[in-house]
Design brief:
A hairpin with a 2-residue loop joins strand 2 and strand 3. The protein has a 10-stranded mixed beta sheet, with helices on both faces. The protein has one domain: Rossmann fold. The chain has 9 helices and 10 strands. By secondary structure, it is an alpha/beta fold. The longest helix has 12 residues.
Length: about 280
């Protein structure tokens, strides 16, 4: 296990910024715990927010898409900052996942991954929902988890590239399960799933702020959003991911910057933004 932000062995760590010089997102990051586990099949990043309460917390798994690694996505997409903006009482886990179509799924057993994180991070998982969020080529990892009873909610962010039948079977097998889909490049696949399910709350644009979501979106079992944002901005610009996190039915944490408008993150460096027009 290696704590993110630790100094390299041969390099002194920079002096931390004074607390009063930090913005609300930076203060939330400094107060939380952010660690990188050297897992048996690739790194696993973990974010434990300040004020985390396991009794009411969710577990959120975030899976990156192709042409990224979990390390490049974590840094380049500012994932810790986006999780802080989501303000959710949740343990967040981001495992390594395939960086291309011929790479095997790193962590195909969800229960095994959760047990590993609890043991290595010394944290107790929340008693509320277990939610998997995946972008683009993450669909392969998400589909490998569909037969595990622990998975309650699936959020597919431009990730419906595969056959819709497994997703439909997973959702209809239990009334407790919930599905949220965001489609841009994958609009044909997401439309196909929405048509197969029938009773779907459909939005023609992604709401630009959390308070502009229709009230029924917070409770609807299936939500489908036709996104106006591009494939990569869906997960890099600080609007979509924090807003989707806030749809998970668990409490927000007062110590996190939930009152900030979404989207205040500066764009990541060009080098960290691969061309991901292919899943």
């Amino acid at each position: 296990m290696a704590w993110l932000g630790a100094a390299l062995a041969d390099q002194a760590a920079p002096a931390p910024a004074p607390a009063d010089a930090l913005g609300p997102v930076e203060r939330a990051l400094a107060a939380g715990k952010h660690l990188r586990i050297d897992g048996p099949r690739g790194p696993i990043h973990v974010w434990i927010p300040p004020g985390y309460q396991p009794d009411t917390a969710a577990t959120v798994l975030y899976v990156h898409g192709y042409w990224d690694t979990v390390d490049s996505a974590w840094a380049g997409h500012r994932l810790a900052e986006q999780f802080a903006l989501g303000a959710l009482n949740a343990l967040v886990i981001a495992p390594e996942a395939p960086s291309g179509p011929r790479v095997p799924v790193n962590y195909p057993r969800l229960a095994e991954l959760l047990q590993l994180v609890e043991a290595e991070a010394g944290v107790v998982r929340g008693a509320a929902w277990t939610v998997a969020i995946g972008h683009s080529g993450a669909y392969r990892t998400l589909e490998s988890w569909l037969d595990e009873p622990v998975l309650d909610q699936l959020v597919m962010v431009d990730a419906q590239y595969g056959d819709e039948a497994p997703i439909v079977r997973w959702l209809t097998a239990s009334d407790r399960r919930r599905l949220i889909m965001v489609g841009q490049d994958t609009v044909l696949g997401t439309e196909s799933v929405a048509s197969a399910l029938g009773d779907v709350l459909t939005l023609d644009r992604f709401p630009p702020s959390y308070d502009t979501w229709p009230a029924e979106a917070r409770d609807a079992r299936v939500v489908y959003v036709r996104a106006q944002y591009g494939h990569m901005p869906l997960v890099t610009e600080g609007i979509v991911l924090p807003s989707l996190l806030r749809l998970v039915p668990v409490p927000r944490l007062p110590d996190l910057p939930w009152q900030l408008p979404l989207g205040p993150l500066p764009p990541p460096p060009d080098a960290a933004r691969p061309d991901a027009s292919v899943p």
